[in-house]
Amino acid sequence: MNESNNLEDIALRIRGELVKISNQANTPHLGSSLSCVEILVAAYWGAMNIDSKKPNAPDRDRLIFSKGHAATTLYLALNMKGFISDSTLATYAKSGGLLPEHPVYKSAPGIEATSGSLGHGLPLGLGIAVSARIHKTDYRVYVVMSDGESNEGSVWEAAMLAPAQKLDNLVVIVDANQWQATGRSEDITGDSSLKEKFEAFCWNSCDIDGHDVYALAEVLRKVPDGSGKPVAVIAHTIKGKGVSFMEDDNNWHYRIPNDKELKEALSELEIS
């Protein structure tokens, strides 16, 4: 795919490809993939120091995609940034292909960690952020996780340790679409105040519209923010964003669009 400089255009193109790929590859998690589009666009195009020609540069910023079930969004973003070729992308979810339904470390350039078992991304990101300090480099580590993932105890073990280590090069972006696989996050955990939780663990934390790609990019660019603390960005999103009959409908956690629904979705997105 050719790269555009307009962040909203990039997000729209990714949304269209997400719906197509779900239909063609017969893969689920479309709702979760649609909710985090702007987060990845803001990070990769608006904030991160990365170069597809030097994917292993020691000083590159790292992105750990902890909500691995939405890997299609990651693959498409890396494809549009030039890390993953069109031919490799075409192997997604195919037998013998390089791109499985959940990311695998080094299966393709730009994939910094294996993920999918929820709760592991933030601890991994913490360790990588510590490594930057040990090696006296100033790269930043971005961890994208889901609000449902915050059920996991390992998230809060890492959240407790990061401020004690003064890891101001670490930022977590929570895709807070209010859903988990089996229900509303607040109904399952009883509390949705993620900003206050991270603040209680001594993080700098903020709430933001997770579909305002330019606002997201501005926040992510400012890491480190001078406070000496890690940063938690609670990005309030809509599951299934961009397709009216998928928005805020948890059936699309597992449902796959049929040909009729694909046509309707692309028509709404004004994509052929």
Mind sketching the topology for me?
Layout: H1 7-25, H2 30-35, H3 37-46, E1 62-65, H4 71-80, H5 86-89, H6 121-134, E2 141-146, H7 153-164, E3 170-176, E4 179-180, E5 183-184, H8 185-189, H9 194-200, E6 204-209, H10 213-221, E7 231-236, H11 259-268
Parallel strand pairs: 1-2, 2-3, 3-7, 6-7
Antiparallel strand pairs: 4-5
Helix pairs in contact: 1-3, 1-4, 1-11, 3-4, 3-10, 6-7
Coarse structural class: alpha/beta
Radius of gyration: 17 Å
CATH architecture: 3-Layer(aba) Sandwich
Number of strands: 7
Strand content: 5-15%
Structure report:
The model has no long low-confidence stretch (mean pLDDT 95). The protein contains eleven helices and seven strands. The strands form two sheets. Strands 1-2-3-7-6 form a five-stranded parallel sheet, sandwiched between helices. A two-stranded antiparallel sheet has the order 4-5. The protein has a single domain (7-268), classed as Rossmann fold (3-Layer(aba) Sandwich). Strand 6, helix 10 and strand 7 form a beta-alpha-beta unit. The protein is 39% helix and 12% strand. The chain is an alpha/beta fold and 272 residues long. Helix 6 packs parallel to helix 7.
What descriptive keywords fit this protein?
Rossmann fold; 5-stranded parallel β-sheet; two-stranded antiparallel ribbon; 7 strands; 272 residues; alpha/beta
Structure, briefly:
This protein has 272 residues and is of the alpha/beta class.
